[in-house]
Amino acid sequence: MIRAELSGFLSRDFPAGMAPPMDLGLAPAAAYYSREVDIEDARPLQERAKTEAQLFADHGFTLLAHQTRVRDWDREVASIYAPEVVEIIRNCLFPERRIEILQRANLIRRGPDQRYYAARIHADGPLTVDGYALNLATFGGPPAVRRWREAYSRDAVAGFVSIGLWRTTNMKEPLRHMPLALCDPVSVDRADIAPTTSGTIAPMGGTTHHLVLRHNPRQAWYYYPEMTGEEVLAMTVCRFMKDDPDAQQRNVFHTAFEDPTTSVGAEVRQSCEHRVGVMILRD
């Protein structure tokens, strides 16, 4: 276990309703604050789980061994990584479920000459189907929303989950610089969750919908020390189940953070996240 400062907790004094935008520089200084928390090594938690798929189902995240054939992350995502992702999801996350996988061959890259590290606590997906549809509209317009709603409304569909697959890229050493802290969804009270927006993620300054978190001492934070290029972290962006609309949310709040045990001169993090939608079919 380590103790580290995490940024972006929503103030407990902030009233219920929509929180200020989570973007750096846009939110009022009084709305968010930093706090030191204990962050547990997630590898023992994973070792106690029956399977990787069970850990993902119960806690919203899991670490998978995966040696990608990608050598050029600018040119080989569609041709190599996208097919690999299909195998990862089918074989490791839903080995006993009938599913349909929806993905676009694009990555969110972070590191030198890429996007800034997302160093404020957030969950990328909303809590409702309508909120997810709003995000789809921002990126793909009404046709994307119409296609998704038609697919989701089918009787054969039991639910939907959006998954973020996160890994390092182009690194020689294990990850020590700016790793990810993950909050176990089981430890999160709904009352501590607030909706928010961002104006810096979508193209053309479009608005996207996300979640922020008030601190609660019951929250359990984890990280995977020294991830390598032969591992990929799967985490739930959002999940909706038709027959259980009030189920425990599985959105994984997370943030990059400065590990106080990281030595000076550690290799600078380069990473990517690939978002994938999965329609879960009835058995």
Write the layout of secondary structure elements.
Layout: E1 2-10, E2 32-41, H1 42-48, H2 52-59, E3 61-65, H3 77-93, E4 99-103, E5 108-110, H4 129-152, E6 157-168, E7 180-183, E8 193-198, E9 208-213, E10 221-223, E11 231-241, E12 254-256, E13 271-281
Parallel strand pairs: 2-10
Antiparallel strand pairs: 1-2, 3-11, 4-13, 5-13, 6-11, 6-13, 7-10, 7-12, 8-9
Polypeptide structure, described:
The protein is an alpha+beta fold. The protein is built from four helices and 13 strands. It has a single domain (2-281), classed as Jelly Rolls, CATH 2.60.120. Helix content is 20%, strand content 31%. The strands form three sheets. Strands 3, 4, 5, 6, 11 and 13 form a six-stranded antiparallel β-sheet that branches. It is globular, with a radius of gyration of 18 Å. The N and C termini lie far apart (40 Å).
